[in-house]
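Run log, item B.
One chain of 276 residues. Sequence copied directly from the ordering sheet:
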Amino acid sequence: MKNLIIRTLTGIGFVAVVIACILWNKYSFAVLMVGLMTVMMLEFYRMTMRGEYVFSQVLSILAATVMFAVTFLYRGFNFPGRLVILAVIPVFVMMINSLYVKDKTDFGKFANLYTALLYIAVPMAMTNLVAFPHLGQYDGILLLSFFIIIWVSDIGGYLFGMSIGQKFGKKLFPEISPKKSWAGFWGGLFLAVCAGVALHYAGLLKYPLWHCIILAVLMNIFGVYGDLIESQWKRYYAVKDSGTIMPGHGGILDRLDSALLALPLGIMYLMVVNIL
């Protein structure tokens, strides 16, 4: 019970900070996203590299920050779109730096630097596409709606999984995450669709209803995959949580693992059907 209370209070605090930063203005949005991205990358490197190649880790986080910054400038300040390509320069610097690393006994771990860029930095940079639905015009409502669908899906998966899935039914991927169940999946999907419908009728998701339902379904499915992917990393490296920054939850990566796949898929869907 005590852990549940701590978990609930921490979760409420985290959600409140995210909502406030997204709704305040574009600068608080940028600070929030870069902060979350940096912490998640640090947690990922702590889990996979355990203090090795620290300078290269710093270069990787710098590359991620530049990637976010140029995308932010492009969407928010009409920065020439062709110059977004400049985001790859710090990546090249990181690659060149690998040539000068003297101790290459665990050089295979260098792959984790690039993994974090694709796994964490790219999805966070893509949030600029929904935060600025029109060039130069910030509107955090759509991004907040995305997070609401993800949060509701996670809550549904947790509640249905703990109340039904642990006693009845099959597990999703027992070798990766023993607690993930089909009951939790269907519960999360149901509540995600309910959230999509509610956001539509509340005027927050200003798309046809069927687009909102498809969006919720896609974000739920890929949110579950995102959760399982992080669970696979943790299982391989024998860690329980990615960090300790959120009492009762673990790390920021533990809380946003589902968003790292759900957000890009939601954005891509809206862009493919040409309504973003």
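Observations after the first pass:
- The CA atoms of residues 200 and 206 lie 6 Å apart.
- The two ends are 43 Å apart (CA to CA).
Flagged for discussion on Thursday.
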